[in-house]
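Could you show me some protein's one-letter sequence and the numbers that encode its backbone in two labelled lines?

___
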Amino acid sequence: MKTDQVGALCVRHRDNGACQVLLITSRDTGRWVIPKGWRAKRMKDHEAAAREAAEEAGVSGKMRSKPIGNFSYAKSGHSGTRPVRVAVYLLLVRRQSNRWPEQRERRRAWFDVRKAVEEVGERDLRKLIKGVGRLSVASR
């Protein structure tokens, strides 16, 4: 099944080795989500996901070029609600800016993996977050 959007699962490692996940609030409902957006015609999907992470969360780093999985969610718009499928790329965060384009529209926060799983609503995204500790260690 083709994907409509791309997303960045942003992670970092604490000095003690613990993995953390960066979540942001959605503009409309304020629920915790990952940075995501529509695919871009002139960019590879992982590049578009990296751009979303920079715009929505103010982070950058080492982005995997292959998706680690996908999830679907219900997108509300002018013509009602429709399912949207998101390809998720792993971003090992190396830089976090104090200022970024959407900072007035969203909140961002780092969560331990277990807490991040509790905060997100999409079941398939929770599964990806649960597995992120194992995946991100391989990226270091």
